Amino acid sequence: MGETIFSKIIRKEVPAEIVFENDKVLAFKDIRPQAPVHILIIPKITEIETTRDIDPNKHEALLGSLYEAANQIAKDVGVSETGFRLVVNCGPDAGQEVYHLHMHLLGGRKMNWPPG
After folding, report:
1. Is the entire prediction scored with pTM above 0.90?
2. Residue 28's domain spans which residues?
3. Using 50, 70 and 90 to split pLDDT, how confident is the model at 76?
4. Would residue 36 count as lying in a domain?
5. Which CATH number do you get for residue 50?
6. Distance (Å, whole) CA 71 – CA 54
7. Which residues are the active-site residues?
8. How confident is the model over 54-69, as pLDDT tens digits?
9. Beta strand extents in the chain (DSSP E only)
10. Considering its fold, how many domains does the chain have in total?
């Protein structure tokens, strides 16, 4: 995997509006928001390109950390009670632009179904 913009954000070489950080996870506001709340949640400790590259034996705890962070962020930004959507894109047809596993937390408005 080549270096991504997310790698540079993790190292603080590229600015981002960070809303959450711990030793495993970093979350920041999307620069092209698709909802009033649009936050990207990424793993810091390992770079996984897509969901196809997840190894359940190796990444189980990390995936739990991403969801734990998502729940905390949703509370922090005030969308936990009204609802939010978590999206993980995999590959170009799904709209994945950065090949570093990431989760979109979307909220602050009524979501439509089906998406896309």
Report:
1. yes
2. 5-107
3. very high
4. yes
5. 3.30.428.10
6. 21
7. 102
8. 999 999 999 999 999 9
9. 18-21, 25-29, 37-43, 84-87, 103-107
10. 1
